[in-house]
Design brief:
heterodimer, A: 353 residues, alpha/beta, Rossmann fold, 2 domains, eight-stranded mixed β-sheet, 12 strands, globular, disordered C terminus, B: alpha/beta, four-stranded antiparallel β-sheet
Chain lengths: 353, 406
Amino acid sequence: MSRPPEEILLKINGLKTYFFTEEGVVKAIESIDIVVHKSETLGLVGESGSGKSVTALSILGIVPDPPGKILEGEVLFHGQDLRKLSDSEMRKIRGNQIAMIFQDPMTSLNPVFTVGDQISEAIILHQKVSKKEAREKSIKIMSLVGIPSADERVDNYPFEFSGGMRQRVMIAMALSCNPELLIADEPSTSLDVTIQAQILELLKATSEEFDMSIILITHDMGVIAEMCNRVAVMYAGYICEAGDIMIIFKSPYHPYTRGLLGAIPRPDAAREDLTIIRGSIPNLINPPSACRFHPRCDYWMDGLCETVLPDIVEIEPGHNVRCHIYTEEGKAWMQQHGEKREISTMPKKAITG
Amino acid sequence: MSSESFIEKIASQQADKGLVSSRIRTKIMKEDVVLEVVNLKKFFNIPIPFETTWFMLAFVAAVVVFAFSTTIGLALMGGVIVLYFLLPNVPPFNKRPKVAHLKAVDGIDLHIRKGKIVGLVGESGCGKSTAAKTIIRLLEPTAGSVYFKGIDINRLTSVEMKEIRRHLQIVFQDPYASLNPRATAHDIIIEPFDIHGVASGDEASYKVLSLLKDVGLAPHHAYRYPHEFSGGQRQRLGIARALALEPDFIVMDEPVSNLDVSVRAAIIQLILELQNKMGLTYLFIAHDLSLVKILCDETNVMYLGKIMESGTSDEIFENMMHPYTKALISAVPIADPTKRSKKIFLTGDIPTPINPPPGCKFQTRCPLVSDICRLEEPPARWYSATHVAYCHNIEGGEENPQVYVK
């Protein structure tokens, strides 16, 4: 999958988002760097509580404030820092150039308005068309996302739709203004596999049709493998590894990625191949120091991982890892202690093909 | 009396009365079947709201009478109207409420042999959980029988059933909803000991601690409340409770669906470890097919209350016959970017199980649907002694599994 050098659509540098709650400061995002190219699908994967959704909210500038606050970093969309825009300028981009699909369509659709009204709202806001035209457009986009007899369904309320159809309504709403970037936050998690397959196919088809980039947030490595060009693995507020999916799935460099891939049943794997990551995701009020993964890591270098945060190391162009196994400090530590920490090629069973 | 001899006694009593057919009895004895489910059905009756016409009629009549009535008539009719509107769900006069049947489980057969993990998969709303609850008699079946070690458990009295319940346990999907928030882990696990009089006092507490250890929790967890545990730990607690009475058979009702991937793998490992150690038999309910594939010895695919296909996991995943199984398996995202599979897309959603159409349940979404599917229930087609699919439009197979038995 070699593609020509692409235009960068979205670039996030050193994003930091904290939540100032009564129990303490939740350090949800410590430092995030992401690049999204034009018409590519980037997967953002991690366990629950790793900060995936907060990243999405931070991009759109809709982190609930208070308690949330974006402290540092820049979000460059077409080279323009979204964080420096005023509210009204941001409102022109939100829903128009960048749209979002939320995880639970029932709670994110307004139960007291018809779906037609809700889809039209964005169209009227951003495209300055009449109510009637907006309705026509809504019907068109609804049939585009595969809602049968859209001209009748446009006047239905959200509760009259099934789960899969509601998610289609959400997608219709997001697509209504032909966005350049779509952020899909677990779009298929609450759906059955057969419906999930339909929704993912729809996303894939529309992204090709509209030449749209997608940030796909999910915890399902299978969905990532099916949908994405590149993947960024998140853990407790950091991106620990990012790169082309072919590379990441074949030979993950970060111990967490390796653990994550080992923990899911693979098509040709046996029971014995399921591996476990010790412990559970840390409380982000008091996260582990330096590399936040060190208490669960099999490759922990005593005295280094808990004191020095590893820098991002570029293994090859576009493949970044944040782990001491690959840093200069880590290599020095290994030499000093005479121990070798190396990620063996793959979680037990290598992918063939 | 020991539990085993109790089971023997009840089983022979039922056999003497002719309650358990000799065919099932020999099967259970010969093949060591722990659980035999025969044509199990569970329907729910759903009252249909009254149509407003009755109220409208009453109202019109009242208005008419009102127009011509004297003061006494007016007061009387007023009273009737008020009554009608105060009690909107009272059936009009002598009409009985209308009822629809929700056929959650509509005739399923299972046999679960000792030491096996049997998978039951299907989309949400297909009746998996209802089937599980009916099998361990948390719900009474509408028809059909469940035989546990040769005992028809639906004929047992509540006292007898209590004795049998020790051997049939369940782990629920949502470990938070199924644990009493006001009881500590210790109280939760000790409750079965109290109820069955197995142990008390220090002995019981000691057993609690050893159970906690078995499921990978520490002794100091015993005095915590469910909200103080993480999701994975809570599920471990649910498993510890199910293990307390040393059951033979455990229903796992989506035990890992709510958990994160890394935690999920740990719980799966625990489930397998316990099976090895205690010789347990599981009915494993899931919608994650890749998990079922590696975990279960046998797999049953369910759709709208009926089994569509069943067989060993190898047969189902390598040689599936039924169009629904094919679609379901192809829809599972595979965590391998080099193997992006061709998908079979089913149109539409799973239909409602209220008053389903005659014929095959899958007819509304089936890519192979033909006229006969809308009229007749599909026949069984056997592809080996264990592999059966129910479909009109698939090739090959035998009508009778006996062909494969030598």
